[in-house]
Amino acid sequence: MINKPLVLTYLYLLIYILLSSGVILYNKWVLSPKYFNFPLPITLTMIHMGFSGLVAFFLVRVFKVVSPVKMTFELYATCVIPISAFFASSLWFGNTAYLHISVAFIQMLKALMPVATFIMAVMCGTDKPRCDVFLNMVLVSVGVVISSYGEIHFNVVGTVYQVTGIFAEALRLVLTQVLLQKKGLTLNPITSLYYIAPCSFVFLFVPWFLLEKPAMEVSQIQFNFWIFFTNALCALALNFSIFLVIGRTGAVTIRVAGVLKDWILIALSTVIFPESTITGLNIIGYAIALCGVVMYNYIKVKDVRASQLPADGISERITKDWKLEKKSSDIFMPNNSGASSGGTGSASDTNVDEEAPLIPSARLSYIGRTQLGNHAA
């Protein structure tokens, strides 16, 4: 007999992998001068933000799918604005990297996300330096360095853009914990779009006006409505697909799916974009980096179980293990008043799809510290 819930779960995972890979490859195709030739990453990001904000407005204000949270001016100024600023920065720098380096190499560089987030968390006091975690971070960094050394088309500018975007996203993760969660504000995917997307659009307007508007006035830039509409629609669908996945699986499951997606994406990028060449040193370095990430995940899972499973009986341990896996997915559904519920997040957790970062990042944690806790446009 077919297990329908299990089939549905794997279907959601497949949709997530396809959408995530598709958004990245689509963005590369649109931005690359060799293909669609729309080399304006800030403009593309603003299109995504505007579209996402508009859809969220209709869902919240017109169709009333969810209710807006109680947002005061003080809360908006001290929480939403800083988070939106770093969110816009991460998208800007990350998308600009597509102009200079290959999709495969970008995915390899993204292995640095746990390192960047851990450093930012320690600097902001939300995590403590630990020898075992530090050694894992060194392993990840060494793997990325080896992979970079083996990159045939290594570009300093593109690498700097991508790494800067990673650190901007890491700081956003930390701010999400420090600012939003400590104030008791929880946002589901729709309300996140509703509040953050318009603010990010405003932040992107300044660099767009200074850097890309003059270029648009003097050059012939092609604009195809259906290309940009479908591109923005795919990115929006990715946000909601991740929400569906974490609602049906544990955090460890989606992390494994993310690693599988990265390998598939690296392979697909070399087929779709022939100029992308992967060397043996690329693969060796990325494999070393992934080993560090896997070991880091293991440490975090062990920390959670050690802190939440005292001397209990075997049956109680099994029950708590099951509850812990469900809680680690941090499911949060709007209640009658439109508020969200969910566990406390940790900024040191990095199970966030960089292509769909509008979903509250700490809500997509794979398991963090001693508690639970990237539509690249």
Automatic annotation (TrEMBL):
Region named Disordered: 330-352
Entry keywords, A to Z: Membrane, Transmembrane, Transmembrane helix
All residue ranges annotated as the Sugar phosphate transporter domain in the record: 11-297
GO cellular component: membrane
Membrane topology (UniProt): Multi-pass membrane protein
Broad class of where this protein is predominantly found: membrane
Sequence intervals crossing the membrane: 7-26, 38-63, 75-93, 99-121, 133-154, 160-180, 192-211, 223-245, 252-273, 279-299
Domain of life: Eukaryota
Protein localization: Membrane
A Pfam family recorded for this sequence: TPT
PANTHER family the UniProt entry points to: SOLUTE CARRIER FAMILY 35 (PTHR11132)
The protein's name in its UniProt record: Sugar phosphate transporter domain-containing protein
Organism listed in the record: Rhamnella rubrinervis
